[in-house]
Amino acid sequence: MNEPIKVFLVDDHPLVREGLTNLINQQPRFRVCGEAENVPDALRGIETSDPDVAIVDISLKGSSGLELIKQLKALRPRLAIIALSMHDEKFYAERAIRAGARGYVMKRESTKKIVAAIDEVLKGRLCISEQVAAGLAEKFIGGRTGNDWPVELLSDRELEVFNLLGQGFETRQVAETLNVSMKTVQAYCARIKQKLKLSTASELLREAIRWHEQEPQR
Q: Looking at residue 176, what is its pLDDT?
């Protein structure tokens, strides 16, 4: 009998990890071999358990799941990675794929979608919607510049800060959430203002809130 496919989970919400573990372990072909809530634990756990697939939430407390995906891709090129997120794939899926993920699944998707995504990435295929795939293809052939939305100019970390501001977080709360200093957050804000051509902190806040409110329609 073949050994089950080993899956490693990275999410900072225990209930999400528990739900995914129960779902995946119900499939005879799969077995959750480990889990982590942050980047250091994920790197150690994946090194120890040697999984076939990693499912990574792109929003982790104190760090970016996108950055973890980049690290994993550099350290373990053959590891199949699926990005998991509460954010709409029309904007975030492309960043996840560029980082090294082979699939993108939103948390509100049905449980069958997770299982199907694991099967797809193990076959070497991308697991994204047709709309996102078409957008990526257009970029590769030069049909889009990649800057259709000004927010696309932001780095992954700057986007995290921008998104938190849009949710109503104050600078101090952003720093605590990302486990960085106030000075670091202020530097990110300065770069965001420059890239989005905003002059004041008030303009930055208004733009962040407006973008966050529109995000589900992207």
A: 86
